[in-house]
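Dear H.,

Thanks for agreeing to be a second pair of eyes. The structure we're designing against is below in token form, covering all 157 positions.
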């Protein structure tokens, strides 16, 4: 069973959740991973919403997602699920939750960038109605790769 939680803006830098998120980053993104400090400053940005998914039995965070909101646009900056928990619905749970949040905070469209070789993520986004909206040349480093820009129109609640 999984438990969803929205991190608070008053998040304490000493909170052990921060180390867990940094660990998930390292495992999922290697050299491209966000550091502990990058995560902390992101959490504190007024425009950022960070959702975590916990394994209820172990209380361990198994996945998290980052949404930015600006005006009537949302941007899904990150979704990461620990390898041993993949294909169990955590990625879709996060994506659905962030789309719902974007709607409830008046977004009309939600964007994201994804490595063009990242088949699992692209399938996930297509399954939720995202469409290709363009390419960003050499968007990623480590290794260098183009990004697909994807967008989904949402109707505000
Ligand atoms: C992409 C990622 C977030 C998916 O998370 P997940 O929890 O495994 O996803 P779900 O179990 O909710 O899967 C939902 C759908 O996504 C697609 N999908 C997920 N993994 C897939 C894979 N390996 N191959 C093909 N499609 C896949 C399927 O359509 C799947 O539905 P199905 O299981 O009914 O077939 C996860 O693989 C991950 O963390 N990858 C590393 C980090 C990353 O690349 N993040 C995205 C950055 S833009």
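And this is the sequence the design step returned. I haven't edited it by hand at all.
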């Amino acid at each position: 069973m999984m438990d969803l939680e929205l991190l608070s803006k008053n998040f304490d830098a000493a909170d052990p959740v921060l180390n867990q998120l940094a660990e998930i980053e390292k495992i999922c993104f290697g050299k491209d991973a966000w550091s502990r400090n990058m995560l902390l400053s992101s959490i504190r940005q007024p425009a950022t919403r960070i959702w975590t998914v916990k394994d209820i039995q172990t209380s361990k965070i198994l996945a998290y997602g980052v949404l930015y909101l600006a005006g009537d646009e949302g941007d899904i900056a990150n979704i990461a699920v620990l390898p041993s928990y993949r294909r169990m619905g955590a990625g879709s749970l996060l994506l659905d939750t962030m789309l719902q949040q974007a709607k409830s905070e008046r977004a009309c469209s939600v964007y994201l960038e994804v490595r063009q070789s990242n088949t699992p993520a692209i399938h996930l986004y297509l399954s939720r109605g995202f469409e290709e909206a363009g390419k960003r040349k050499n968007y990623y480093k480590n290794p260098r790769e183009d990004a697909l820009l994807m967008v989904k129109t949402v109707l505000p609640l």
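Two observations from my side: The longest helix spans residues 90-104. The radius of gyration is 15 Å.

Warmly,
E.
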